[in-house]
Design brief:
alpha/beta, 10 helices
Length: about 325
């Protein structure tokens, strides 16, 4: 039976990136009804939280499996091909319906709106999963809904019984539904990663990192785009500052950061090194088109870390 360092549990979808050429106004991208709109560019990639993070874990040197539900269409073939190319084992289930699909509409300023069709990705049931596939040291949970979210909760019970460590990267729509729906996962997570907006929705604006840690999480990661982010482990508050770089595409940056941190932590147990790996990985990804393009190998990440000094400050709390 193959043993994995980590299994990523989440969605795997085809992403269509559409450079609309439309100028944003009042934080909106709008189109006249009935018109045929010419777009500047169109680019396809494989994405989804489960896919993006599993690709990072594998390239960063971890034995990685992907657990999720894919469809019975051409897009599912593309997903399996992408997994193979990233040396990630497919441990999931093939359904009879269509695979998930996302359309990312980008304005001229680089901001985007994502239209997502979940397809079968939200229909993974616990009783469908071959338990012999779950021989792993870590589970990484990414955003899911409906049946797949309930399956993640059952996987928490499985993890507790089998001494499997959990990391969790919830989405904005999950935290907007309130803590109750994801409490079981949060309280049993060793590492949780979310952006500032999500953390404040979940735990309020004042010291949200401490409140989330008090729920039982060992390490809390809060990102804020190109602004200062923080990592809190109960003893120290680590502040870090991303480099100012020109991004081609920010989709997948959060997945690249959280997966980079977790891979660094699994390999070194050093929080500052984990932050550096996360910064190197996420900053590489945003310079490429596609959520998983630009993912670094471990050696590439270490080379970048040696060549530049990421700004990190540790404070006792």
């Amino acid at each position: 039976m193959k043993e994995y360092d980590i299994i990523s549990v989440g969605s795997a979808v085809v992403d269509a990136f559409v450079r609309t050429g439309v100028k944003e106004k009042n934080k909106e991208i709008s189109f006249p009804l009935g018109d045929k709109i010419l777009v500047n560019d169109l680019f396809f990639s494989i994405g989804g939280g489960g896919m993006n993070t599993s690709a990072s874990f594998s390239k960063l040197g971890l034995k990685t499996g992907y657990l999720g539900k894919i469809g019975n269409d051409y897009n599912s073939i593309l997903v399996l091909k992408e997994l193979r190319e990233n040396n990630v084992d497919f441990l999931g289930v093939k359904g009879r319906e269509n695979n998930g699909y996302s359309v990312i509409l980008e304005g001229t300023g680089g901001d985007r709106t994502v239209l997502t069709f979940k397809g079968v990705s939200d229909k993974l049931r616990f009783n469908e999963i071959p338990k012999s596939h779950l021989n792993t040291k870590w589970f990484h949970f990414t955003s899911q809904k409906a049946d797949s979210l309930e399956t993640q909760k059952k996987l928490v019970d499985y993890a507790v019984k089998n001494n499997i460590t959990i990391s969790f990267n919830p989405s904005s729509y999950q935290v907007k539904e309130g803590l109750g729906n994801i409490r079981k996962i949060v309280e049993n997570s060793h590492i949780i990663s979310m952006n500032k907006e999500e953390a404040e929705i979940l735990a309020g604006k004042k010291e949200s990192w401490k409140k989330i840690h008090n729920l039982g999480v060992k390490i809390v990661i809060i990102t804020d785009g190109e602004k200062m982010g923080i990592v809190y482990d109960g003893n120290y508050l680590y502040k870090y500052w991303p480099d100012k770089i020109k991004a081609k595409e920010v989709t997948g940056a959060g997945d690249a950061f959280s997966a980079g941190f977790i891979a660094g932590y699994i390999r070194t147990r050093d929080i500052e090194m984990s932050i550096r790996v996360a910064l190197a990985n996420s900053q590489s990804v945003i310079t490429k088109l596609g959520a998983s393009e630009g993912i670094l190998t471990w050696n590439q990440a270490q080379s970048i870390i040696k060549s530049k000094k990421f700004k990190i400050k540790r404070e006792a709390v």
